[in-house]
Amino acid sequence: MTLFTRDFGKVSALAKGAKRLKSAFESGFDLLARCRVVFLHKSTTALDLLTESQLLERFHPRAGSLSHLYGGYYVAELLNALTEEDDPHPLLYDAAVAGLEHLGRDESPFLAVTRFELAVLFEIGQLPDFYSCTICHSDIAPGHPGRFWVSQSGLICSNCGRSEYQPSEFHPGSLAVLHQLLQTEAGEPGEIPVSAQQKKEIRRLMTAAISHVLGRRPKTLSLITM
Ligand SMILES: [Zn+2]
User: Fold this and answer.
1) Per-residue pLDDT averaged across 166-193, rounded?
2) Distance (Å) from CA 164 to ligand 1 centroid
3) 30-36: long-range contacts (C-beta < 8 A, 24 or more apart)?
4) Which of 87, 105, 137, 182 is 20 to 30 Å from 193 by CA-CA measure?
5) Quick check: 46 pLDDT over 60?
6) Mind telling me which Gene3D superfamilies this protein's record contains (predicted)?
7) CATH number for region 62-226
8) Is the four-CA dihedral 1, 105, 69, 171 of positive or negative sign?
9) Residue 160 Cα to ligand 1 middle (Å)
10) How far, in Å, is the centroid of ligand 1 from the Cα of 204?
11) For the chain, what are the domain ranges?
């Protein structure tokens, strides 16, 4: 199985006998369950050996919403696809825990999912610069007159914009929300007011940024209604 640990990053480990009724592992190996584990680290390519596990917390997506459940799967997909073994990211672990908690109670998965995407991009050093134009590098601020456009690696200012970018317009209000998300911690309550239009524009931007880094569109993202 693949675990994402706070201290060691991604770990591929063998849990011998985990499916037996009486094993050293509590029945805690559901996807997204948080556990305290003991494992033996093997050198080179061999799988690590899991020897003990204690369930701390299961993932409880907001009742009645498949989107919150898929939001959790999406967190798992990004952790698995964008992190390497033996490369610890304790802050990313904390961001994942906070994101899953929010998916348990927030009305919309939007803030939890978007904050987690920003955290993962930041932690792997792939966060686009959302404060300047990707072409001319001039400052992009919410007070800036006019609109911006979404590119694969960030935003394009109105001077560099072309008519063919029109379908990916990004308004200053969306930029203000995005900057607010970048400046608040993942664990903070999801209380930023976001309009439907801003959600749409920010989701387009984040999907482009994540797909760019993954080299494909994420599998679970299209299942989430924000
Ligand atoms: Zn520009």
Assistant:
1) 81
2) 15
3) 30/58, 30/59, 31/59, 31/72, 31/73, 31/76, 32/58, 32/59, 32/72, 32/73, 32/75, 32/76, 32/100, 33/57, 33/58, 33/59, 34/58, 34/59, 34/97
4) 137
5) yes
6) Nucleic acid-binding proteins, Recombination protein O, C-terminal domain
7) 1.20.1440.120
8) negative
9) 4
10) 19
11) 1-58, 62-226
